[in-house]
Amino acid sequence: MTVLGVALLALCTLVGVFLGDLLGILLGVKANVGGVGIAMMLLIAARIWLMRHDRLGHATKLGVEFWASMYIPIVVAMAAQQNVVAAVSGGPIVIIAAVGSVLLCFAATALLGRIGGRPARDGAEAEPAAAVIAGDVEAPSPVRPTTASGR
Predict the structure, then answer these.
(1) pLDDT tens for each residue of the chain, 151 residues long
(2) How distant, in Å, are the alpha carbons of 32, 71, 85 from that of 82?
(3) Which residue range is the domain that position 88 belongs to?
(4) 3-state secondary structure 123-135
């Protein structure tokens, strides 16, 4: 059921917030450090573990997958609560960390794209479309199916 997915999310959130607070204390920061991210990773790991052990029914699987897909909106909502002005006034290390993390994500995306082994596209496939877009060639008219009753 979806309720079990929500219960699993709640459990992962509690554990994630606890670990985020603990990490904040260990780092000497008076804040939760990555609790939501930890919770979402725990949710994904729990879903995989439950699937491998055949303990995840179809309805529960749908509920868990729904909440796992909500990862990015939840993180954006949590980040919106942060005090960005106070963070930036803390010094240039914040800006260096932000730019560095964005560059690292771009590099990781490019690397994963190259590793993925996507087959190279022929230029012959793209040329007709490019000519139509540029207006050099008239677009072909759509083919209308004929019906047997039209005879």
Answers:
(1) 567 777 888 898 899 989 989 988 988 888 888 888 888 888 888 888 888 888 877 777 777 777 777 766 776 676 666 666 667 677 787 778 888 989 998 999 888 888 876 565 555 555 665 565 666 656 555 555 565 555 5
(2) 11, 17, 9
(3) 83-117
(4) HHHHHHHHHHHHC
53 and 93: one domain?
Answer: no
Judge whether 141 lies within some domain. no
Instruction: Name the pTM for this structure.
Output: 0.51
Task: Please identify, among 39, 57, 82, the residue that sits at the C-terminal boundary of a domain.
Answer: 82
What is d(CA 126, CA 85) in angstroms, rounded to the nearest whole number?
Answer: 47
Q: Which residues are within 8 A (CB) of 98 and not within 5 positions of it... i.e. 6 or more apart?
A: none
Give a yes or no: residue 146 inside a domain. no
Question: Which of 82, 98, 125 corresponds to the end of one domain?
Answer: 82
How far from the centroid of its chain's Cα atoms is residue 70's Cα? 9
Total domains present in the chain = 2
